[in-house]
Automatic annotation (TrEMBL):
It holds the Pfam family Amidase_2. SUPFAM superfamilies: N-acetylmuramoyl-L-alanine amidase-like. Residues 27-183 form the N-acetylmuramoyl-L-alanine amidase domain. InterPro entries: Amidase/PGRP_sf (IPR036505), Amidase_domain (IPR002502). Signal peptide: none annotated. One of its GO terms (biological process) is peptidoglycan catabolic process. GO terms for molecular function: N-acetylmuramoyl-L-alanine amidase activity. Residues 201-220 are annotated as: Disordered. This is N-acetylmuramoyl-L-alanine amidase. It comes from Streptomyces triticirhizae.
Amino acid sequence: MATPLSADKLVKALKDEGVKIVEHRSWRTHNRNGAGAWGPVHGVMIHHTVTSGTSGSVDLCYEGHSTLPGPLCHGVIAKDGTVYLVGNGRANHAGSGDGDVLQAVIDERPLPADNQANTDGNARFYGFECVNLGDNKDPWPAAQVEAIVRASAAICRAHGWGKKGDTSVIGHLEWQPGKVDPRGPGVSMGDIRKRVSERLKHPADWSPGGSNPPHEEDDVPKRTLYGTTGDFTQTLKPGTWTTVRFDRRHNGKEWETKAPEPSIAFGACFYSTTVAVRASGLSRGQELQIRVAHYAENKEGGFERTGGMPINSPVHDGGDAHFTYAWNGHLAGSRRLRVELAQHGNEPITIEYLRAETLYWET
């Protein structure tokens, strides 16, 4: 049985974990306790707002709307990683969900499929809404995802959760049938749980690599921009991953042609990267798979692959075959970030255009 944290204890837990917070209006007394129970609590639930812009999203989550009064969560996590506290107590965020999922959260064991809506989640979960359109295209910046990890870890640490497993943090899509949040390039509940679990092995002020990821207003990121010229095309053979190259770079003022180069970011840094691809030769309904991968320097002075990030598999639906991919992460040491593409059709296809823009914060 876990008694919900008081406002003061929640603020302290978040600050101790390195979370930047803003106390919004009368959040300390703003709740839906008159509509139902608040507690005992058992976990943290992550959502996306289906909105853009910090101010409007925070106001919406505080006020609610005509069919669902606020607060709609306990905290709103902005793109820059700031957490705006908007409620303290029961909040209209989780709705009814699967009781078997709740029991798995309590037991800290793998989650079953959510196929029922028979349990009041608003009484049992802290909720964080994250500013994102939820269209599976709007990227999740590294600072925002890190804030999700830290805010979730703060609450787990305060309650002593996570000692048997790591499933005290779930997504709305894992709780209520039909929900899809959180989704989009750069966010994964499996990755979030893994990182929360790792944080809980260390003191609250621990930072991977010894450095806190910055907030946008505190530390302006640097930028790299790579592309390809019109006459530089690359062929993707069926059934194999190909590391693509870029033959031009923007120097901040203009494009420069260069020898083809595969790397688009260089460690050590936190990064947020977006890749655009235009291809020809795809049949309608055929997938083009995109991912980024980390490469580390080897003893011979070259670079070898150390791991790939999750794959995005957009489908060609006719017209120009133009695709995008986004990912946020951290490069350690002298590692490099490269783009890999694959297709599994019957014939080779041609990559006619590439562009990769990366914002990065050195660590």
